[in-house]
Design a protein that fits this description.
Elements lengths: L1 H7 L4 H17 L9 H7 L7 H15 L11 E2 L9 H7 L28 H14 L8 E6 H13 L8 E5 L6 H7 L6 E6 L9 E6 L18 E6 L18 E5 H4 L7 E6 L2 H15 L4 H18 L11 H21 L4 E2 L6 E3 L4 E3 L5 E6 L7 H7 L2 E2 L1 E2 L9 E5 L4 H15 L1
The chain binds pyridoxal-5'-phosphate (PLP) and 2-acetamido-2-deoxy-beta-D-glucopyranose (3 copies).
One 2-acetamido-2-deoxy-beta-D-glucopyranose binds next to helix 2 and helix 4.
Subunit structure: Homodimer.
Protein name: Alliinase C-terminal domain-containing protein
Pfam family, one: Alliinase_C
Length: 441
């Protein structure tokens, strides 16, 4: 890492581009050597020349598209970093090849039912097993005394939780709050059906209504990446912890989360957003039953095929993670993705610090009990602020430069901020960096 850091704290991105070009030439020259996708790992393991071929090609394509299709100023192609689509991880899973392949014969998983003895009767036992095993290995959540409820993404579980936690005989809808800036989907998901059970009541910090409420605590937070705790702290409050990003590549794992109701998702953990699998760890059996009922009414369960696929992916993740420190170091999903995120944040900070137009949040490092070292928070999103007085609306400003982002208003704050995905493919991320430096120059 030391070498890395010193390379990317350089102020001038032109030099960076030159360095990229040089390393590209090196890589292409030495591509006859070692193959693999794990560029960062290989920096640790062996001579830096043994860089990987695939990444060299990706970088090459990025540079070529900068100089050809996008013209001299590099502002022709639209870069869409509005969604947090975690395509960055494709490279890793490609490398894992057959290890995560599963075969499902035509007669398998046909019944609606997975495990009739379980409170969550559509939960695949193999998924439950792998979820427990992964949390144990990573140390990010207490699983003892918890019921697992599986959902079609954690999005469905969020709705299931609102349903389960709202009194059915309440005189008025239960208020749902979260501290701004909050994940932009909470308000729309909460209010889309104009439920009589619950409604969105906005920023938790300014919430003053009496009576019961649900506070969603997202930690690390989407969009800004900070570790969070509840803010309202009144009796009658019920907490839902959305820990979609509580994984070692994004934030130090300080201790196992030990809450009443916690949501996780494979989308952000492994990158398999399209598999649509999330899980809730629920202390109270009655709440878990009501959540299960909601999913029964909504979709009569959760795709068994998807659950089996997710189980396999989690199994391989845990297997590679448990080999930390052994000869399989180079395969550890979390270690590799941690370094890839570190690299991206280093590059982004260098680009932002190269001028005065933008700023990023500053984070305090912490000890990660999983990686056994001090690590920096390096969120899946960059919460960028337009510092220039002439720029009122950062989203429109960047859109003018063909960079699509999500503006602060979606998250309950002002338009000076935008959220930018940090987990897209290399090519798009490089283009974004390049364009950011062009804007500042
Ligand atoms: C904080 C948070 N919760 C939940 C989700 C939804 O995840 P899923 O794909 O599991 O529905 C996201 C996705 O961006 C998220 O950022
Ligand atoms: C890097 O390579 C690209 C394409 O080959 C070229 O357009 C660009 O000018 C090079 N950058 C530097 C700093 O040499
Ligand atoms: C990212 O890059 C791929 C090419 O690898 C391209 O097809 C896609 O449109 C890009 N996505 C965005 C969001 O720019
Ligand atoms: C609410 O409680 C948490 C700890 O449970 C604490 O960190 C936070 O500061 C409190 N918030 C307020 C506004 O008092």
């Amino acid at each position: 890492m030391a070498k890395f850091v010193s390379i990317f704290t350089m102020r001038n991105l032109l030099v960076l581009s030159l360095a990229l070009n040089l390393s590209l030439i090196m890589r292409v020259t030495f591509e006859g050597g070692k193959q693999g996708f794990f560029s960062v790992e290989e920096k640790h393991r062996g001579p830096s020349m043994a860089e990987n071929k695939e990444e060299a090609h990706a970088t090459q394509r990025a540079l070529l598209s900068l100089s050809s299709s996008s013209g001299q100023d590099g502002v022709e192609k639209v870069i869409n970093l509005d969604h947090g689509d975690p395509t960055m991880y494709e490279k890793y899973w490609m490398k894992m090849g057959e290890r995560t392949t599963i075969v499902i014969p035509g007669w398998q998983s046909m019944s609606y039912f997975s495990d009739v003895k379980n409170l969550c009767w559509f939960l695949e036992p193999e998924l439950a097993k792998q979820v427990f095993r992964l949390h144990k290995a990573v140390g990010n959540a207490v699983t003892e005394g918890r019921h697992i409820v599986v959902g079609t993404g954690s999005s469905q579980l969020f709705l299931a939780a609102l349903f389960a936690l709202s009194p059915k005989d309440g005189s008025q809808p239960m208020s749902v709050v979260s501290a701004a800036p909050y994940y932009s989907s909470y308000p729309s998901m909460t209010n889309c059906l104009k439920s009589g059970l619950y409604n969105w009541a906005g920023d938790a910090r300014s919430f003053s209504k009496d009576g019961p409420y649900i506070e969603v605590v997202t930690s690390p937070n989407n969009p800004d990446g900070f570790v969070r705790h509840s803010t309202v702290n009144r009796t009658g409050g019920i907490l839902v912890h959305d820990l979609a990003y509580y994984w070692p590549q994004y934030t130090p794992i300080s201790s196992p989360a030990d809450h009443d109701l916690t949501l996780f998702t494979v989308s952000k953990a492994t990158g398999h957003a399209g598999t649509r699998i999330g899980w809730a760890l629920v202390k109270d059996a009655e709440v878990a039953k009501k959540m299960t009922k909601f999913i029964e009414l909504n979709t009569i369960g959760v795709s068994r095929d998807s659950q089996l696929r997710a189980a396999k992916i989690l199994e391989v993740m845990t297997d590679t993670s448990q080999n930390l420190g052994s000869s399989e170091l180079g395969e550890s999903f979390f270690r590799i993705s941690y370094h890839l995120m570190a690299e991206r944040w280093e590059l982004l900070r260098a680009a932002v610090n190269n001028g005065r137009m933008f700023s990023l949040p500053d984070f305090a490092p912490g000890f990660c009990h999983f990686l056994q070292q001090e690590t920096q928070p390096q969120p899946a999103f960059a919460w960028l602020k337009c510092e220039d007085d002439a720029v009122e609306d950062c989203e429109s400003f960047l859109k003018g430069h063909k960079i699509l982002t999500r503006g602060g208003r979606h998250f309950g704050v002002g338009p000076k901020y935008v959220r930018i995905s940090m987990v897209d493919r290399d090519i798009n991320f490089s283009l974004f960096l390049k364009r950011l430096s062009t804007i500042q120059s």
